[in-house]
Write a structure and sequence with these properties.
The structure is a single chain. The chain has 19 helices and no strands. The protein has about 475 residues and is mainly α. About 45% of the residues are buried.
Amino acid sequence: MRTATGAHDRDLSRRLVWGVVFAGLGTVAFLLRDGGQASSGTAARLALVAAVLAIVALFRLNRRRPFSLGPVYAGLFLLFHVGLLVPIALGASPSLLNPLDTQWVMSDGFTSASLLVTIATSALMLGYLIGFDPRHQESRIEETAAWLRFRSAGHIGLLLLSVGCLLWVYNVLASGAAVSGSYVQFLDSTAATSMPAAYVMMGLGMPTLSAGPSASARRAGLVIFAVWSVPAFMLGLRGEVILPLAAYLVVAARRRRIPLRPWMAFAFVGGLGLGAAVRVIRQVGFGNGFDPSSFRPFDGITELGYSIRPLVVSSDLHERYLEPYVGVDTYLAPFRRFIVGRLLGGDVIAVADDPAVFGAMISRRVGPIGGSPAAEAFHAGGVIAVVVVMAIIGLLIARLDSIETTPLRNALVGTLTFVLLLWVRNDFTPVPFEAGAAVGVVLLVRVAANLRRGRRKAPPSLPPGLVRTTVGRR
């Protein structure tokens, strides 16, 4: 008991120290924004320091499970928001997608957005530190009756993944899209198809597949995903490949311990280089071949960091052009559209025209540059909203990481992981539907497990007319 109490006290002490660190970083970033004297290099270096410390803190807090949701979510969030700041922090010029489009990088809004990244990172970490509880992070042994009862989870995940891949192939064939063409041409050709449904099914299927104890189902699913993901990734569908795989990894780390290895660092650098190569391929088309000189890891991390641009746009709108914040409407709009529009049959504003929808606003003003939960929160209510929203996300992630490992809970954590990761580069609009779909998949897993247990407990049936008798032994 003393040992457990001592470990718990040490954990609280570590979290308190980290909490002071991130509260300090967030305060410094806020004061620099308020003073308006920070340079872009200073803001970038502060964001990079906050990012590195966040990853170190999360790995140390999750020593027994380094690939849990907290490190994975923070890693992707920071990669997408800090990647473009890395060369600036090091005194170099970033490699932009459009070398002539430098105005937004040189603006005051870019410096403000860089400081907002530090504030968002600090708030995310403070929420995580408050909600984290490591006592349920011991891995469980799969081969138990409780685990085996959820064997259907792997089959449900395999079915979702397979149907999603088949739907993707059908959409490609029906639209006449050329997978050897450019990424923009592919998006234009498949814009009117049900591609989003295919991606959601694959994204929910992968973690559900990982949650089940069936190793054969997992192997089959990984083969199917690999066959689809290689050409899809080379075409330019990076998020559609990376996010389901990350959700699968989070659940796999809950089933068994996956320690950090040195080769993972080399694999990460190789992945960045491949991402840079794909950046070139997606512009000219996969059919034009692969240029080895485009394999540049530094360019890969820079290009992934373009999620800071929605923050720049949001900062400019409200601090340079003094447009009013939209408030909580950006988060209530999906519910209002469903309740008033779908259930009650009332008139609602279309998504593309709704000023409360962050992604639609960005597309109208700048183009399809994606989204960001931090940028959307700033659009809703400024710095305070960024702190509140990112802290809530951090708290939710910490509670999911602290849930005890069981097949059903793993399926819940994995499917919600996919939803949260999908939100990193988008807006809140599809999140309620995707979260509802995730809960629906988990309920399906639960029903299948209960049916399996019922069949195992049911006595064997007897032919009509026969009566079961029990003969005692002397």
